[in-house]
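[Discussion] Sanity-checking designs against the backbone

I'm trying to build intuition for which residues belong where. Below is a C-alpha cell string of 155 positions. I'd appreciate it if someone posts a full sequence so I can compare it with mine line by line.
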C-alpha cells in the first residue's frame, strides 16, 4: 500500500499558473488588442500594484520561514503560519501574485487582463486553495480550523 501524499496535491505551482496567465494576456493582446483605457497614464498605478504585490510576497515568505515551513505547495506543510500577512489573509501569497498579475497586465492596456483573470482565479481557487485547505484541515485538525475561523480566505 502506498503512503498518502504529505502535500496538498495542487494541480500546478501557483507562480507558474500566474506566468501562464500573463503570457496568455500578452499573446491575446498581440492578436486582438482591445484597449481598456484611451490614452496613457496608467504606468504608475500599475507599478504600484506590482510593487505592493512584491512587498506582500516578501512579507509572506518571511512569515513562512519564521515558522520553519515549506513555501512550495508541492512539499509538506510543517506548521501553520499565523503571523505577518497571515493575520489578515490565509492566502497572502496568492493575493500578492494577483496584485503582480494585475500590475503587469493592466500596463498592457487590454481588456484581456480582466477576461483572463476570471479563469485564473477559478483555477487558483478550485485547483490550489481548496486542495490546500482540505490538506491543512486533515493534517492539523482543530489548530487549522481555529485559524480558519479567525482569518479570511483572501481579503
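Best answer:
Here's mine. Compare freely.
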Amino acid at each position: 500500500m502506498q503512503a498518502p501524499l504529505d502535500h496538498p496535491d495542487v494541480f500546478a505551482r501557483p507562480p507558474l499558473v500566474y506566468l501562464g496567465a500573463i503570457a496568455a494576456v500578452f499573446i491575446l493582446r498581440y492578436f486582438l488588442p482591445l484597449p481598456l483605457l484611451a490614452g496613457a497614464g496608467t504606468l504608475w498605478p500599475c507599478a504600484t500594484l506590482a510593487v505592493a504585490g512584491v512587498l506582500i510576497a516578501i512579507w509572506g515568505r518571511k512569515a513562512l520561514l519564521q515558522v520553519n515551513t515549506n513555501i512550495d505547495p508541492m512539499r509538506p506543510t510543517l506548521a501553520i503560519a499565523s503571523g505577518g500577512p497571515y493575520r489578515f489573509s490565509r492566502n497572502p501569497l496568492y493575493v500578492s501574485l494577483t496584485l503582480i498579475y494585475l500590475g503587469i497586465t493592466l500596463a498592457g492596456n487590454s481588456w484581456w487582463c480582466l477576461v483572463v483573470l476570471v479563469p485564473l482565479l477559478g483555477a487558483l481557487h478550485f485547483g490550489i486553495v481548496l486542495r490546500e485547505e482540505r490538506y491543512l484541515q486533515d493534517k492539523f485538525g482543530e489548530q487549522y480550523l481555529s485559524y480558519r475561523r479567525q482569518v479570511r480566505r483572501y481579503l
